[in-house]
Design brief:
68 residues; mainly alpha; globular
């Protein structure tokens, strides 16, 4: 992941409410990465975020959460 992608992933993560971040981490631990991406997008959609981040951006953020 490039430093720009890493920075964008961090910004995306910090925009999520604490409860959503906790839920996303729970799903990642369970191996439910697709569901975690949907939780991210649903949360941002409900908050009125326009435009929504791409699935690629969500994937990059989740990859950063999962680690190496």
């Amino acid at each position: 992941m490039s430093s720009e992608q890493s920075e964008q992933a961090e910004v995306l993560w910090t925009r999520l409410p604490e409860a959503v971040r906790e839920r996303v981490d729970e799903l990642i631990v369970q191996g439910k990465v697709v569901q975690a991406a949907m939780v991210v997008r649903d949360s941002l959609r409900e908050a009125g975020t326009e435009p929504l981040p791409s699935l690629m951006a969500c994937r990059a953020m989740l990859a950063q959460r999962i680690g190496p």
